[in-house]
Structures
1.
Amino acid sequence: MAGKSKRDAMNLSRLVQDSSVSRWDDDVDTLVLGFGCAGGCAAIEAARGGARVLVVERSSAPGGSSALSGGVIYCGGGTAIQRACGFDDSVEAMRAYLMASTGDCPNAEKIDLYCRDSVAHFDWLVSLGIPFKASYWPHNYEPTTDDCLYYSGSEECAPFNRLAKPAPRGHTVQAEGSCMGGRLLMETLVDVALREGVEVMTDANCIALVAGRDGAIVGAAVRHDGETRYIRARGGVVIATGGFVMNREMVARLAPAASRTAPLGNPFDNGSGIVLGEAAGGATANMHAAIYSCPVLNPPGLIRGILLNERGQRFVPEDVNHKRIGEHAVLRQDGRIFLLVDSEIFEQPAGVRPIVATGDTPEELEDELGWPRGSIGATLAVYNRHADEGHDPLFGKKAKFVKPLTAPPYAVFDCGIEATGVYYSFTLGGLCTAPTGEVLNAEGRAIPGLYAVGRAATGLSAQSGGSSGLQLAEGTYFGRLAGRAIAAALKSEAA
Amino acid sequence: MAGKSKRDAMNLSRLVQDSSVSRWDDDVDTLVLGFGCAGGCAAIEAARGGARVLVVERSSAPGGSSALSGGVIYCGGGTAIQRACGFDDSVEAMRAYLMASTGDCPNAEKIDLYCRDSVAHFDWLVSLGIPFKASYWPHNYEPTTDDCLYYSGSEECAPFNRLAKPAPRGHTVQAEGSCMGGRLLMETLVDVALREGVEVMTDANCIALVAGRDGAIVGAAVRHDGETRYIRARGGVVIATGGFVMNREMVARLAPAASRTAPLGNPFDNGSGIVLGEAAGGATANMHAAIYSCPVLNPPGLIRGILLNERGQRFVPEDVNHKRIGEHAVLRQDGRIFLLVDSEIFEQPAGVRPIVATGDTPEELEDELGWPRGSIGATLAVYNRHADEGHDPLFGKKAKFVKPLTAPPYAVFDCGIEATGVYYSFTLGGLCTAPTGEVLNAEGRAIPGLYAVGRAATGLSAQSGGSSGLQLAEGTYFGRLAGRAIAAALKSEAA
């Protein structure tokens, strides 16, 4: 029997017609695929709206990549914590920053909606019992304490500080231990969901969507315990299965630059839900895009050094978020970057950053690296000339990190992909959706009964997302919108 | 009647089941969608293999974007013309260059195959009567005479000249008038196709593929003369409809960087065939990728100047192909680049390149541009220091273009996207195919009866394609392979 079911599964197309389904094994109002933060919030809101909700999760426990994260949620426009910490933020400033920092074709509609609702959304998270401490963490990396609010992006940095009034918007879930906020977030979402009557089936893998005669999605085929179960979902199916960074064939094919870096996520970030949505007629967007993380300037005193490409040129203000450094390093500098320090700021970087040159003069460094004479010397001269006056007009690094590098000996660390092994990425592309999560086809028309949220969809961080917390923000927020849309549709149908 | 048919067309899904086709209006062995160079060559080889072939073309005449091109075909490994002009080339050198110059994840299988067959393929083109003159054009831009062979890429330039032995591989069809080679190429292909019995239906638009019960493609629905005609194709359907650069919604969604540049192609490069192939289960690859053309260094004496980004830094050896300059300018320099010349090499560039600064010293230029002191000065000092010795060790510009820029006054031209209006792009992504053109699904399995060739498929220039002539090369070559594969399959079926 199990053998036969397995063969059935292998031969099953990703989209089957309901006319070929001989028997429904279960019947729910809403079927959610994946219990990360997006699926969890969709389930909670759908259940609160009166729907019977089943979440099928591929792993043996809920959590997804959300649970592996540090629990940073990007909120702004004047949250209770921002105000308590003395920061003045506005919807307009937040929108301007996200429009400027998320790529060539930012998702204006979703950005606009999220910025307007961000304060209310934060309050909703708090209402679930997710703890946030009203405290500010004055660094540009994730809190290593239980502090909350910090600059999780490059809001304070050039060029964004000229484009939008800066404010810290990274809200970190308060949890014991470093980077445990994501786990606590997910534990809370699971508790709330169960309390609301949401059912969860783990070790369950959706292998096909089921379509009605008109193309509307009316259910799914799920592998569980060696069998294929057909689950009817009269209010629709929500794809919340995460991105595809773990599917290295798909990465090479669609996001090839990310194939040079290590994948960040859980093993089931394999694109399965995106492919299901495509089979049902969903269009995709931004499939090439990824977040590139490379925390090479750690400890942060190293920000006072200068990052060089292999021509000895600077390429970013060194104080930007490590994701922006990563994006520039991978996409614009072929993954080969270096850090130059002098003896005054020298300290051992965290992790492997091989010293590839030392010397009392730029010429000695150039010779040791085999770089042309003047390559480092010219860069250093221009930097020092302005650093003497306490500023960095060429790249706009903030004054507090600017000091002339005039105390030999100098050292150059290799901070590139090959040398360091700390470049990680996850994908940003996914199914095209309306803000309600409805999956859209290539003409922009919704496919009835099909929703996608979280990293299985394209969202706030369209092609670039240099701020930590955007993934959990959009996962939780647009997850909620999808859950509410489904509940509302069920109600109007019943009426 | 026509009204009803039009409604039918509007409501028709892109993939219909043959069980719903009540009547076949025509019955052929092979249906080819699109008569550019790829569709034309597929048709010719299929017809020569004994198949009855129908090509449906959306325009009022065959030609496609191939006919609008300059007629450059990238061939190498020792063609008759290369040998006649005294160039020594090898399959291995050609392969090494294409592997290094076509992106992070080059298509090794297709590159390997094409390099091995390139000489024979060139001979085949000649055998059709396509004229090539055995002459060398000693510039890195398309011949403005009827000359043939030239360096159509960056083979001679850094870093490629260190990675592969250079040879010119751009073979230009001999035609009267500048850039008329593409038209002559297509006229010849049409003549040959008609001679071989290929039928052509113009003003005909494929709106859906027809699938058999097993998912194999067995025909298509074609709009022609106000009616929807169902055409059976027992040997399969070949998608040869070109790329999607004219579909600006699709570009914004999937290749957003290209949305900043003007589209290059014919109006029907709208992605229609790619979308049809996806509806039939085909996977896509490299949908973000595009060719960026920006011929800003014209006349070529301007190559002796230096290109700067808006930090006053150089970023490429100025002697590389304009497509490589374009790619760097758009993807790495935000489309903002400048050209610095001194009085000795000053000449008026072709086209609009506003002079944005003049001065006797770098400082005067910096002040006029509002750039930090030292930004241009440092770059110029390093360049001149090495140019004095006749070389460019930092970027590797060839010695013949290197001269110290030491004759004031200086001028800076704005060569960016906004200022010049000469940045054009076309898309490289498309359906995943085997070298035979068989369209592959996400698991890499062929969809029976479905082929894609030319720019509707992903090919030789995976994510980057800095050499002119690659599009016609792969269109003609892989078009042929698809036609031969179909003919062979029909024969083996008949046997």
2.
Amino acid sequence: MSVFTEFDLMREYHHSGGKIVLLVMDGLGGLPMQPGGKTELESAVKPNLDRLAAEGTTGLSIPIRVGIEPGSGPAHLSLFSYDPVRYEIGRGVLEALGIGFDLQPDDLAARGNFATADAEGRITDRRAGRIGTEECKRLAAKLQAATGNLFPDYQVIVEPVKEHRFVFVLRGPGLGGELSETDPLVTGKAPLPVVDASGSAEGAHTAALVNRWVEAARAALADEPKANSLNLRGIAKDPGLPRFPQIYGLRAAALAVYPMYKGVARLVGMEVVDFPGERPEHQVDALERVWNDYDFFFIHIKKTDSYGEDGNFDAKVHEIEAVDAVIPRILALQPGALIVTGDHSTPAKLKSHSWHPVPTLLWSPTVLPDNATTFGERACMGGGLGLFHATNLLPLAMSHAGRLGRFGA
Amino acid sequence: MSVFTEFDLMREYHHSGGKIVLLVMDGLGGLPMQPGGKTELESAVKPNLDRLAAEGTTGLSIPIRVGIEPGSGPAHLSLFSYDPVRYEIGRGVLEALGIGFDLQPDDLAARGNFATADAEGRITDRRAGRIGTEECKRLAAKLQAATGNLFPDYQVIVEPVKEHRFVFVLRGPGLGGELSETDPLVTGKAPLPVVDASGSAEGAHTAALVNRWVEAARAALADEPKANSLNLRGIAKDPGLPRFPQIYGLRAAALAVYPMYKGVARLVGMEVVDFPGERPEHQVDALERVWNDYDFFFIHIKKTDSYGEDGNFDAKVHEIEAVDAVIPRILALQPGALIVTGDHSTPAKLKSHSWHPVPTLLWSPTVLPDNATTFGERACMGGGLGLFHATNLLPLAMSHAGRLGRFGA
């Protein structure tokens, strides 16, 4: 008996074929604001998406596990067909990759948050009032100057990201472990020391280095009026995931606006395509431009999630409608398979990510259309895709794009 | 790379939140008696359950594996989110826990059945005409007196249960193995010797001890007019399951009438709440009384199954209606999540447990209502829960009750 993983199957059976588009509206799934009402997706006027649902097959996707509220990083890994419970990645790694930082395999990365603290060091604002990005750049440069040479054997790199967020990278030999975060997650408490849970010498050594850096960095910020403290989260190394282009034989491009989604795409080996503008139409401009250079295209729409988090039902509806408007341009490129889905649900009613399964459609000339005639959470119930784990989507798209051979004779 | 089990996820991400009620109608699923007819659940007049289905989400639950007819013990383990194929438990352990016996971790327990046999020892009635419980007590005391000191290094404990059923416990060092049962399962055959399948010295030793006890016990019963023989089934130790309250962070109460269901609840660490009466309304009396003391409530309704086993379609329908009548009292307590399901199907038409998936509804303020407007097997097909493994229910209820944090950032 041999044990194939899903990835082994894909590596062995893939061949050339049509192009695949994975269009992700972040936080797509929703809830009615009132009993008996419609969800955001059900409320949107979206003739093109409805046509895709009618011509295609639909279902509800489980990003992580039944009942588990997904973070964005693991939820995207799942859409890329990596089981996120098996492949764990740190937020620091995602953030570093997201800003295009050339992370090395042995680098330790953390997400940094500038914060404010009172005289006793207790955190008073975990995001330092979301300071502007220019201020973030100035503070990161200050930290770089003050702590870049803190350790004789290690290089410290501090890179600004956006608002209160920065990336901390430690480069040198023998880093590792399972490191806890410094963020107490509530205000009024002192930051926590980094602790290693692996029990390894490497982990203890790394925790000590990080703690020393945090102390030096906070000292350097002590006189800053807007951000006199900081926290580190998701402190880890690149987990070295299997490479997406090799597993599927796909030249893969990511068309994303936000750093973290670029980061998770880079993490699996996709190429990030830069483009001017931030709206869905700008993303499709870029798609048209690079269509002949790649086989797979991940398009990430952020604002559906942002509006969901804000509790802004109507703005989320309008963003879905804006995406609907660009669908004909994507279809005009004649993809072999087009997936429209979300990484997770973000109901405006809950103002938060949620565990509800995600409405999903797969359109392809070889799809057997199911009974759904519109694209919506309830239209997708009982659809041809059923209730499925998100990692199943890509193998299915591969087949519909004519890219997978037969298993057995 | 880390490998999380589902329980690891729950242990790591649970926090406080709303209360969860798991209402189990044993053997709930059914079949029409005639082609074109309705099932028991579909036939019942049950406005409250129908309302829950309309406001909630529905589906069909697979207790063990597709096509596998479930026993009650494993089917309940599955509802408690323990995969019963992975976590095997002996019927003796269940029975012992069910009568409140203080089973120790190294005890070997078996379910005993008083039986009748002919002059050659062949079983003539596997249940000894279901002798009365008083007779059962007398016979158990007789066995205790006759065999309690059979082994110098081991303690033998015989406890009556109900009708023809008793518990046999062997206490002492080095017990174990994978032991077969003595019950030939048909009349007209001689009982079987206990055989160990583990091949271990411990197993061979234990099998020999049990066989010696069975021989001595049958000799002690030889002159009994109503029960001159016995059989042992499900001979095993407590498997030491992970504890439900620790996995989920739930103070868990079981409101059951029958010993075995109390037993399986105790086995995972729930507390069994005693109450006067045996009807659903008495169980809800108790629920109201202990509502503030626990976070999770398992309510077990037995008679839906008993009537199914009897082939009494109408009585099963009426029992469902009796449960329907207490639903408003449960809702008045404002649970965060309410599950109504069965442990398995027991169609009156088959007079037996069956493998048919089990109609299930989940009601919560955060549920997206699906298209089902009544509670029934066919209404649940295509519901929002899909066709799912029963172990998924509890994580889902945890999220809906607001008790789970986010996975990843």
